[in-house]
Specification:
This protein is of the alpha/beta class and 414 residues long. It folds into three domains: 90 residues, NAD(P)-binding Rossmann-like Domain (Rossmann fold, 3-Layer(aba) Sandwich), CATH 3.40.50; 155 residues, UDP-N-acetylmuramoyl-L-alanine:D-glutamate ligase (3-Layer(aba) Sandwich); 143 residues, Protein-Tyrosine Phosphatase, Chain A. Helices cover 36% and strands 20% of the residues. It is built from 15 helices and 17 strands. The protein has a six-stranded mixed sheet with strand order 8-7-9-6-10-11, with helices on both faces. It has a six-stranded mixed sheet with strand order 12-13-17-14-15-16, sandwiched between helices. The protein has a five-stranded parallel sheet with strand order 3-2-1-4-5, sandwiched between helices. The longest helix is centred in the middle third of the chain and has 16 residues. The mean pLDDT is 93.
Amino acid sequence: MQFFEDTSKVYFIGIGGIGMSGLARLFLAQGKEVLGSDAQDSSTVEELRAEGISVALGHDPDQVPDDAELVVYSEAIPEDNEELVAARDLDIPTMTYFQALGRFTDAYHLVAVAGTHGKTTTTAMLALILDRAGLDPTVVVGSKLKEFGNRNVRVGASDIFVVEACEYRRNFLSLNPQLLGITNIELDHVDYFKSQEDYELAFRELSDQSDEVLWPDDVSEYEGEVGVPGAHNLMNAGMAAALARRLGVSEGMIADSLKEYEGAWRRFEYRGTACGALIYDDYAHHPSEIMATLEGAREKHPDARIVAVFQPHQYSRTAALLDAFAESFEYADEVIVPNIYEARDTDADKHAVSPEDLVEAITTYHDDVRFGDGLENTAEYLLETIQDGDLVLFMGAGDVNSIIPRILDEGKWR
């Protein structure tokens, strides 16, 4: 299928983001000239360059080609971004990531997975099932998948398009799914949604513009074998299986695919060993996700001493959910909070809570909690204390996993 027929050159602002990079790859697969910029270098940026996409580091209005026919920008890009302003001054049409994705998917049979938790894993599971079943879907997911060559996109030839749909700022309302699965609904993105009622309303709005909807209560825990641990993943598999059945996939194919599923990038991803300890990386950044991930880790490694290194994502989220975060570490033996990752936070947000406040709150429920005093000091502490029999689990949506290469390298000779 060919979309944006009159567009041959597209510029992406914030191209290194997981969703943006996937959409850029879709445009590239359609023969478009694709280029863009990102604030910093990353493995994703390097991968895009290797695939033939030119990526500039930093934002400069001179980088926007005056012959670009479309500029797509990440929802994290502010409206006064110099490249975005330059594009509009040049009268180049601009779209957010989700606006462009919505336009791209309009002619497909769109299957969307939304929800507070588990939507990446559920989308990935469903994509694997449909791929194995020969339905040849196009897929955009919020993580890299081993099954897709460690990429976050699969380009298929059928009319089925599977997408992970994010609720932040009601972005998913740019989509019009034929089939929608909602994994769960629990207040998040408190810098935008001010109440549980408003948060739930966003999902209702998406359901109203979807042809068929599977709500959390419509789906039960999957009863077969799943290749990743944790009760939360049985629920994710239950939703993926239910959606696959709606698309005509057999029970046998669903079962075989879910047994094969190995997990996604930064979803309880095994990274190696350091000082004899097992090192895992996970994107969990909400209290319920932390609890579920740690419970899954305990299930898979019942005898390990589990060290949870948790970096909260956003001061606003940390302050709003402080009490819930405090109770989330039941299955960890030790908890380390290195810092709080700033994203879209105001000065008032940053004055409302500190890492030490979170440490104090967790201490109410847990005996062994410490402030790591930054990523570097946290890495040093881990190298001095972890040993055989430990499992170190890095959790957060920020840059906490940047510690991992450091301890893996130095753990080899310490």
